Amino acid sequence: MISSKKLFSSIHKDISQLNLNLQKMIGAKHPILYAAAKHLFSKGGKRIRPSIILLIAKITEPNNYILPEHKRLAEITEIIHTASLIHDDVIDDCDTRRGINTVHNIFNTKVAVLAGDYLFAQSSWYLANLNNLEVVKTISKVIIDFAEGEIRQGLTNFDTTISMDDYIEKSFYKTATLIACSCKATTILSNCNINTQNDFYIYGKHLGLAFQIVDDILDITSNTKLLGKPAGSDLKNGNITAPLIFALEESPELYKLINQEFQNTNDINKTIKIIKETRGIQKAKDLAEEHIQLAINIIKNKFKCNNTQTLMLINEYILSRFS
């Protein structure tokens, strides 16, 4: 598996500074909100989203220069992402995230919801201060899409009639929209033409979809220690994901377990075992690879430079997470 540290070596200093800036940016007057928000940032993550922004900035700016506005956009994107995680954990009643207790588990649900709201508000304030209306419009849509995605998911829990198109659309709202829109916003800050803006939007869209599909595979194939959150949590919450949709085509027995909403203690483990006995996981991997290839095809010939090669490696890194 590719090391994320090695992968982002060209922007290592920028990511280190981003981590320091995030600590300062989330400072709140209320100590509980500050502690709740700081909790996830201090643990950190792989910073995939801001790394993509910084690399695209290098690709689209003369002399590989990253503007201060690009750096701030990378920070805003990570704040929005973290806010969505805090709210997701409340909705999914998830006890751990990145291997540590979730905000609502440490404090309570009310504090977690307020902490997520606070981060969304903070991101909006910093976004407005970029003084670029097109970027504001582009990134603001992400928060709308997040809400749309959560509502759609909530309305289709344990719904075995969900189609693959429905799943892809929901995955766009929940994950791919942030990557797609932040990629486009980066090119807007670089004063790129509309064609380049659209190219990177589509690149981000397919990368984000692949990322979500891989996450959904890992929910079934991985374990709590590696995931940093409980394995099988998607199944438990009734989220019908790609591996399950494909598995349903081969194993009608799964319909009964889902319709009963996994009421028996061992139903989740039984469902995972059945999915693993089908070609559901392999077909989901193939689907993720399709979206990765679509992302690669967008940029490989149009934007040739070392930083483009690093973007290609990100694609490989996303797929390597389940190898």
Description:
The structure is a single chain. The protein has 323 residues and is mostly helical. Helix content is 74%, strand content 1%. It has a two-stranded antiparallel sheet with strand order 1-2. Helix 13 crosses helix 16. The protein is globular and about 60 Å long.
List the keywords.
323 residues, mainly alpha, Farnesyl Diphosphate Synthase, 17 helices
Please state the overall shape, judged from the principal axes of the Cα atoms.
globular
Helical fraction equals over 70%
CATH architecture: Orthogonal Bundle
As laid out across the biggest beta sheet, the strand order is 1-2
Biggest sheet statistics:
2 strands, antiparallel
Q: What is the H/E order? A: HHHHHEEHHHHHHHHHHHH
Helix count, DSSP H or I runs of 4 or more residues: 17
Percentage of residues in DSSP E strands = under 5%
Number of separate strands: 2
Q: What is the SS-derived class?
A: mainly alpha
Q: How far do the termini sit from each other?
A: 7 Å
Here the CATH topology equals Farnesyl Diphosphate Synthase
CATH class: Mainly Alpha
User: What number of structural domains do the residues give?
Assistant: 1
Alpha-carbon Rg, integer: 19 Å
Residue stretches low in confidence (pLDDT < 50, at least 5 long) are none
The CATH homologous superfamily name equals: Farnesyl Diphosphate Synthase
Mean pLDDT value: 88
Family: Belongs to the FPP/GGPP synthase family.
Cofactor: Mg(2+)
GO molecular function: metal ion binding; prenyltransferase activity
Protein name: Prenyl transferase
